[in-house]
Structure formats: structure tokens, C-alpha cells
Amino acid sequence: MTAETTPGTSTAAGVGGLVDGFGRVATDLRVSLTDRCNLRCTYCMPAEGLDWLPRPELLTDDEIVRLVTIGVERLGITEVRFTGGEPLLRRGLPGIIERVAALTPRPKQSVTTNGLALARTAPALKAAGLDRVNVSLDTLDPERFRTLTRRDRLHDVVAGMAAAAAAGLAPVKVNAVLMRGVNDREAPDLLAWCLERGYELRFIEQMPLDAQHGWDRTRMVTAEEILRDLSAAFRLDPEGDAARGSAPAERWLVDGGPGRVGVIGTVTRPFCGACDRTRLTADGQIRNCLFAREESDLRAALRGGADDDELADRWRAAMAVKKAGAGIDDPTFLQPARPMSAIGG
Ligand code: SAM
Ligand code: SF4
Fold it and tell me: How many Cα atoms occupy the beta-carbon half-sphere of 221 within 13 Å?
């Protein structure tokens, strides 16, 4: 980082990285590949699904690779996470991963998925160059899974995780959202189940990003409650800030290790000060925060003939105005227009 381009910063994103007014440097890119999904988790979308983005509005595989290449080669992106919607619904995913893996410097690549298609795709994704997967699993009870996701597919998720581990997509990380009166008693069982299999579990506080706008702060299961329930069953030793780095999860060693558990307290323990993320939606919008209410349209510029320099400049400009924090606990907080499934979680 040179003093001319980004005064006051000392990170290693390279010349002209994605720096905001608070000196944070974004090196972790979340790419949403589709807003569609084959589950209907109640905290995410309604039973009937949503008005999906029209196909012509979605970035093509080539457009995604071009933007990721600009991110990696010019803007200092070192990690790429594919998400959605359900990213495994995107047929071109192995090809995209293969092309991104060929970039210099090669970024780390991971996928956040509901796991339904992993049993079938894990070996090909690994062969294409994928490093890791995060699989979402909120309950171990088949009936509760059916209620929570509105599909009877627990078995497929469990098989998908095993296939990912067997393919070497390790460590398998597991994301769980707890909902009061639904699965909030399951935290210790989920942790024991993950520890047995060598999976790394992270609980995520439920956020106001559901399409139905049904989130209620007073009913949310907080990080503190989750930790209290886990502590009744396990000894938890904090890993500390050094191990956390810019990761959103605070982590604890479980029963002396090596197993760990993480808690992402986006609402009650926000980590905005260390945020290193930038987001690209499936329709080519840059978002500088999950909760941002403004986006920057890279697709229009790209399809209008902008060259790589101009696209990089637009991306930098979008990140430069990132706010200090998401402000969920602020009384003036307004939920973004897009739901989580259309932003890319
Ligand atoms: N479909 C994939 C999946 O479920 O892993 C990827 C997209 S999903 C939006 C990404 C993550 O966001 C999942 O772990 C999901 O549980 C989480 N998520 C969705 N809606 C949420 C909400 N309102 N609050 C907190 N997490 C949420
Ligand atoms: Fe689909 Fe993921 Fe949303 Fe569940 S959380 S409905 S799997 S996008």
C-alpha cells in the first residue's frame, strides 16, 4: 500500500486496494451466484419463494470471472466465497472455480451452501480448486428440519457434509441459526454432533434480513444465551482476538480442544470495526455491507463497455464510502430492500 494511493493505511492489499474512510481494507469477496434456492428456511424466505431475478439480469459465468479477476489482480482480494441463494444450483460453478483458481495470486475459495447437492458435487468442486465449504444446518431432528426449511431433506444435508469431508473440502464448517421455540434447545446437541465428525460449528444470530420482515429483536436468541447453554454442557476457553483476526466469529476451544465452536453475534456483538468484506450480488451490484441500503451497479458499467480500470475504480469508490457500522441496534435502523437470499449471505 503506498502513501499516495491510500494515506494512513498499513495493510497489505496492494496498491489501490479496497479501502474505506475508516482505514479498513476489504480482501474477502462474497459472490452471490443466484438468488434462487431449493429450501425455504422460515427465517430467510416465504414458502412460495420470491420473485427471482430475471435471467438476463444475472451476471454470466464470464462476467463473474472477469469481475473476480479484477478483484484479485487489481484490488487485493485474497478470499472468494460463493454464496446465494443456493450456489450449487449454478451449473457453471465448477468452471468458475477452476478459472478463479488459475488467477495469480491464487485466492482461497469456499462455498456457503445448504448442502443438498454436495454429495453429488463435492469431488468435482474439489477437483476444480475449491478449498472449503460452509454448510448450513440448524437442527438434527428430521421433523424439525422439515418445519424449518419446509423440505424433508435432512438426510441429503448430512450426506453432503460427509461427502465434502471425504473429498478433502476441510475443515467442513457448519452454520446454525437458532430460533426461539423452534430449535433453541439444540445448541449442545449440534455441537456434540459436529465435534464427533470433526466439523467446526458456528452459531449465527438471526438478523433482520428475511424477505418477510418478520425479525423481532425481542425474540432473537442472543450470543449470550447460546454461550450460556453451551457452557452448561462443555468447557469453553476463549481463543482471543489474535486468533479471531477479521473473522466475524468469536471462537472458543471446547473441552480443551482441538474442537472449537464459534458464535457470530452480528446484532449483539457487532464486528464492523474489523470487517474486511466486499460483496457482489448475482445481478452485478457491489455492496459494501450486508446491511447497506445503497449499491453500486458494476453490471451496467461492464455491459456498457467499461474497461477493467474503470470497473476497478467504481469498485473502489463503492467501498470508500462504507459506513462505520451496520447499526442494527440503532433505533433508526432500516432493513435493506434486498433480503439475505438476494444479497448473498
Ligand atoms: N443457501 C446457502 C445456505 O443456506 O448456506 C447460502 C445462502 S444463505 C442466505 C447463507 C447463510 O445465511 C446460511 O447459513 C443461513 O442460515 C444464513 N441466514 C439466512 N437468513 C438469515 C437471517 N435472517 N439471519 C441470520 N442468518 C441467516
Ligand atoms: Fe435457501 Fe440458504 Fe435461505 Fe435456507 S438460508 S432458504 S438454504 S438461501
Answer: 24
- The pLDDT tens digits along the chain (345 residues) read 333 333 333 334 445 899 999 999 999 999 999 999 999 999 999 999 999 999 999 999 999 999 999 999 999 999 999 999 999 999 999 999 999 999 999 999 999 999 999 999 999 999 999 999 999 999 999 999 999 999 999 999 999 999 999 999 999 999 999 999 999 999 999 999 999 999 999 999 999 998 888 898 888 999 999 999 999 999 999 997 666 676 778 999 999 999 999 999 999 998 899 999 999 999 999 999 999 989 999 999 999 999 999 999 999 999 999 999 988 877 788 888 888 899 987
Q: For ligand 1, say whether the CB of 114 is within 6 Å of any of its atoms.
A: yes
What are residue 243's phi and psi, to 5 degrees?
A: -70, -30
Binding-site residues, ligand 2, Cβ < 6 A: 37, 39-41, 44-45, 84-86, 114, 136, 341
Buried b (16+ CB within 10 A) or exposed e, 110-120: bbbbbbbbbbe
Domains in the chain (CATH in brackets) are 2-343 (3.20.20.70)
Which of 30, 31, 116, 136 should be mutated for ligand 1, with most atoms under 8 A from CB?
Answer: 136
**Which-ligand-closest: CA of 206?**
1
